Amino acid sequence: MILIFIQRLFGVLILGRKMKLGLFSTSFLSLVLQTGMCFGIRWLALSKTPSALALNQTQHCKQLEGLVSSQMQLCRSNLELMQTIIQAAREVKKTCHKTFSDMRWNCSSIELAPNFQQDLERGTRESAFVYALSAAGISHTIARACTTGDLPGCSCGPIPGETPEPGYRWGGCADNLNYGLLMGSKFSDAPMKVKKSGSQANKLMHLHNSEVGRQILKASLEMKCKCHGVSGSCSIRTCWRGLQELRDIALDLKIRYLTATKVVHRPMGTRKQLVPKDIDIRPVQETELVYLQSSPDYCMKNEKLGSPGTQDRQCNKTSNGSDSCDLMCCGRGYNPYMDKVVERCHCKYHWCCYVTCKKCERTVERYVCK
Ligand SMILES: *[C@@H]1O[C@H](CO)[C@@H](O)[C@H](O)[C@H]1NC(C)=O
Ligand SMILES: *[C@@H]1O[C@H](CO)[C@@H](O)[C@H](O)[C@H]1NC(C)=O
Ligand SMILES: *[C@@H]1O[C@H](CO)[C@@H](O)[C@H](O)[C@H]1NC(C)=O
Ligand SMILES: *[C@@H]1O[C@H](CO)[C@@H](O)[C@H](O)[C@H]1NC(C)=O
Predict the structure, then answer these.
(1) How would residue 13 be classed by pLDDT, with cut points 50, 70 and 90?
(2) Is the CB of 203 under 6 A from ligand 2?
(3) Which of ligand 3's atoms lies nearest the C-alpha of 366?
(4) In which band, very low, low, confident or very high, does the pLDDT at 164 lie, cut at 50, 70 and 90?
(5) 259 with 252: CB under 8 angstroms?
């Protein structure tokens, strides 16, 4: 028997009214030099940090995996932020898996942090997405941690300057986006600001895509409101500015991943910049993801290219999207198997106020790629 208590009808009402804020400030593509590896998202290895690890002394920073030396310094000078950054790495990993679960490339390579394979090291579309999501994710998590009071260095975001419409008033606790952007970019961009690491083209690409992630995060700030008044009459609403969930931001970035622009590193004016490869001269836009290397089709296993292949991946026989058996299995065909699902059933409402259900089992046919 499962009891589900019906939430009181009177309560929080989230109004999805987007607010117009001064968005899309100029993107920056700073100049950094040299060759070698770029360790831009190695910090995602923090997702594997044991949750019991104490982080209250500067020497604990050495126990964290995947940090470059400038991030190690930030750890020592901002110890109180580190639990939040570890949480951000976990959120980014989880969200990436979820967002790409219906695609041939399913973000499995993120598990390899801090030693990535070619899909995330070479400057492909997939790395463009992961950099953008990582930059958005770290700032998102810090901004939220300010709101919940988990960080000593920040609190609620500022109350907006404009007066709200009649029936609305500012209140609650806004997500502290400015603090999130400031500390998040300081930490996650640090590896791309190191001279002597990575090719310049790769670093410009990673910095650009990280900035796209932050722009989309900024654009996700919306008005959230809570109703007050007799029995939820909502005669007065208290409102604040809150960020959308990271999974929604990831869905937006996924669309940009699908329409990403291939760029080349070429002299423009006095310095070399990233410019679109196939279109005649137009600058790269601030909200488009860019990549330098084409991706494989991710059909077959190829470790050199960072492709795990789609053998044994589940596919959907009735879908005609990217998770359809045709597309997912690359025409190789698929094998059916039977799976049991447990569902709530025979639910009954009891006055007042709960529901009881039974558990029912049902077999369904599923398919995996050959
Ligand atoms: C650090 O945290 C651990 C466990 O959270 C605690 O046992 C220890 O006393 C703390 N040390 C200091 C110096 O605060
Ligand atoms: C992603 O694909 C790989 C390779 O087919 C598979 O081993 C893994 O379980 C998948 N991961 C998720 C989260 O679906
Ligand atoms: C398969 O795709 C169809 C159509 O898009 C969808 O309604 C259904 O829920 C999917 N099934 C599974 C098991 O994901
Ligand atoms: C399949 O694709 C067609 C167009 O190609 C579209 O109209 C239809 O909604 C799709 N069906 C599903 C279940 O996604």
Answers:
(1) very low
(2) no
(3) 13
(4) confident
(5) no
If one residue of 101, 313, 316 were mutated to test the ligand 3 pocket, choosing by the most ligand atoms within 8 A of its CB, it would be: 316
Domain residue spans of the chain = 34-309, 313-370
Lowest mean pLDDT among 7-16, 60-69, 253-262: 7-16
Reported for 324-333, long-range contacts at CB under 8 A and 24+ positions apart, including other chains, are: 325/367, 325/369, 327/104, 328/104, 328/369, 329/369, 329/370, 330/104, 330/297, 330/299, 330/300, 330/369, 332/299, 332/369, 332/370, 333/369, 333/370
Q: Which of 98, 101, 313 to mutate to test the pocket of ligand 2 (most atoms within 8 A of CB)?
A: 313
Query: Chain-centre distance of CA 326, in angstroms?
Result: 28
Pocket of ligand 1 contains residue 259 by CB under 6 Å:
no
Secondary-structure class of domain 313-370 per CATH: alpha beta
Q: Give the mean pLDDT of 48-77.
A: 88
Cα 221 to Cα 21: distance, rounded to the nearest angstrom: 8
The Å distance, Cα 319 to ligand 4 centre, comes to 8
